[in-house]
Amino acid sequence: MTDKLTIAGKQYNSRLLVGTGKYKDMDETQQAIETSGAEIITIAVRRTNMGQDANAANILDILPPDKYTILPNTAGCYDVKTAVRTLKLARELLDGHNLCKLEVLGDEKTLFPDVMQTLKAAEELVKDGFDIMVYTNDDPIMAREFEQMGCVAVMPLAAPIGSGLGIRNKLNIMTIVENANVPVLVDAGVGTASDAAQAMELGCDGVLMNTAIAAAQKPVMMASAMKKAIQAGREAYLAGRMPAKRFASASSPVDGLFFS
Q1: 29 FRET partner, CA 20 to 30 A, in 17, 63, 108, 148?
Q2: Backbone angles phi, psi at 186, to 5 degrees
């Protein structure tokens, strides 16, 4: 396909974005990510060594920035100050890299976003020159606010982080997609390949996932399945599905039969 994903002015062949957490070791992480075909890799700055500790294994050794677009994220941040400080650290570690994923969480049980805190953090970071891909709830009004603020992508949750429940509110996701002028990517809640395909069939520009691959019984095989699901879902969306009908419609029409 020549249909490419464009984020912050850069084009990507893959519409699958993946994380690096929850794998059993670095080798499995590397294999799964390579198999997924993902070009944008999100890394939790507060939980993963990107160079903060010179004596520990560095995730960038197996995921070099000259091969992948690294998307540092603020997983584990519950307030504006911590989120902003985390991304400024990531920018230093990545030599001025501005593309990042912002999430400011509301509580530890649901991991739902604190939208008011996220708005404040996004406003500050955009003014400071960051290209913000923002994790938010599936509220079309909030999605519009983040876009108007200058975020380069809006990433509504499909379901709670790590739940694997799939897309719980298709209508809201569709509404966000229909009204957005920036890429919309489903983030959080995908559990299996059919969930990823459904997100793409709704018109999303991409899907970001971690647990759905890393927590599978065979993560590398699931990474392969997700790659194919994203491609199939995108093609189905571009092809335009047939209208859903209540009653049967014969595949072979009876009009013009040679024999009666």
Answers
A1: 108
A2: -70, 130
Distance of CA 100 to the CA centre of its chain: 12
Q: Which residues make Cβ contacts (< 8 Å) with residue 42, sequence separation at least 6?
A: 17, 18, 19, 20, 71, 72, 73, 101, 208, 210
Residue stretches of the chain with pLDDT short of 50: none
Token code pair at residue 137: 């709830």
What are the two backbone dihedrals, phi and then psi, of residue 7, each rounded to the nearest 5 degrees?
-130, 125
Planar angle of CA 83, 86, 91, nearest 5 degrees: 125
- Please state the pTM of the whole predicted model: 0.93
Segments of the chain assigned E as strands: 5-7, 10-12, 16-19, 40-44, 69-73, 99-102, 131-136, 153-156, 185-187, 206-209
Which residue reads 């890393």 in tokens?
Answer: 214
Assign 184 to helix, strand or coil.
strand
Helix pair 219-239, 26-36: axis angle to 10 deg? 20
**Which amino acids are annotated catalytic?**
101
User: CA–CA separation, 216 vs 220, rounded Å?
Assistant: 9
Pairing, β 5-7 against β 10-12? antiparallel
67 Cβ contact partners less than 8 Å away, ≥ 6 residues apart? none
